[in-house]
């Protein structure tokens, strides 16, 4: 247990010490909530913008941590030979993976506390859908994490850095996180619906935004990515 | 293990696709012994060490590290607790300082060395909080060595431990390696620098094109090979034919290799050295720089690999 706890602590500490990680996982989400919650320019419909923004930005925060942050950090660890070196210690790969997953979940809890607090201050009234919300976040974390490790495991660290950030931006735009899916052209919305970002944002809009059941397609898409992502990563990951 | 052998491989073959990196290499190292794998870049040193570390699978031959096969899962699980590894480069979180890295690695082992003692031992106290990527090359190497030592290994593999290290850092690293030897650790290191092998190692295996081309203690290697004869310096223009006739019963050849430098070919027995000294003394000639029967490791290296020695540093 001691190596695992030490590894989790190190992973969390390294993320919180990395300026760009804090910006990505906390800074940008907070700015998005405060800015678009105050300046009503997004096509979020007739209700208060924060009702749409809070779940959408929470979904973005999950994607930032479990996909982008994990991918970039792991890519550089691979490039610097850290993963190779750890392979020759008693920590072992299963415990390294467990530590990374635990660290992601801990960071997501920190994000949720901060972003919910900011959203409440902006006048958000969440509905009681926390149970399904936690479930979809865990599924999405698995799917995003798999995609992140898929990129980190095959691309060079610098290429992966660009790819992960690029993917983050594309998914941000076509995910229903900031812009409702209904505002997208039909074909784009159709593509978005099979991606984990839109499935997560719609699930959170329903569960904690509107207080309605999570749509079936969200469960299916998130469940499929939760299995396919890590599987693809496991099949292609190169440790050095 | 009763015979004290800690690491052993015989007829090791390592292939990458159609490229043969290691081609039938055998070696053996005991507890409390420092074995250097010496050879030019690309000779197969790293491939050999990384196979012994369990990173690569052998395409042929047998391996034993502390009685285990490092390529087998069970062997790997047992050996990660008993073997220390220093990679040729990298291996540390770029944003992590020496103290944090040592504490983290110490947590992986049941009975680790004290991280702060290791910081002092490797002279890293003044940069304890400096991120890895901002350390000098020498500091990075010393931290890698400290991390390899943190778990009190019985066998330690060091891939080019002194490459890119300043002279002061080299002294520290040599002291640490000699301390490990005294503690009974089996140390296997690679180097492409002759002087490092000569300073650090009890035993040297010279590797070229994936094969062991020479093997022995530094003294054995230097004494073996072609007969080294006797070299000495005196005044220029000595009558070498007369000298040859005086010191040899058989046909001895003496040549003046450079003005005032002489080479006596053939055996280098004390009798011959004495005859040489007497002949010179009778004529009132000086004698200096006498060397009998010993080539430098560099000469051995050049003769067995047939190529230029690499520079002093990488």
Biggest sheet: strand arrangement of chain B: 5-6-7-3-8-9
CATH architecture of the largest domain in chain B: 3-Layer(aba) Sandwich
Count of the domains of chain B: 2
Structural class of chain B: alpha/beta
Query: What is the quaternary state of this protein?
Result: heterodimer
CATH class of the largest domain in chain B: Alpha Beta
Question: Helix and strand string of chain B, N-terminal first?
Answer: EEEHEHEHHHEHEHEEHEHEEHEH
Main beta-sheet annotation of chain B? 6 strands, mixed
Structural class of chain A: mainly alpha
Low-confidence stretches of chain B: 309-314
| DSSP summary: helix tally of chain B | 11
- Indicate the overall shape of chain A: globular
Helices of chain A, by number, come to: 10
- Give the domain tally of chain A: 1
Strand-residue fraction of chain A?
Answer: under 5%
Task: Sum up the overall morphology of chain B in one term.
Answer: elongated
Rg over C-alpha atoms of chain A, rounded to the nearest angstrom: 18 Å
Total strand count of chain B, please?
13
CATH superfamily of the largest domain in chain B: P-loop containing nucleotide triphosphate hydrolases
Largest interface, Cβ cutoff 8 Å: A-B, 23 and 27 residues
The gist of it:
The complex is a heterodimer of chains A (240) and B (314). Chain A is 78% helix and 0% strand.
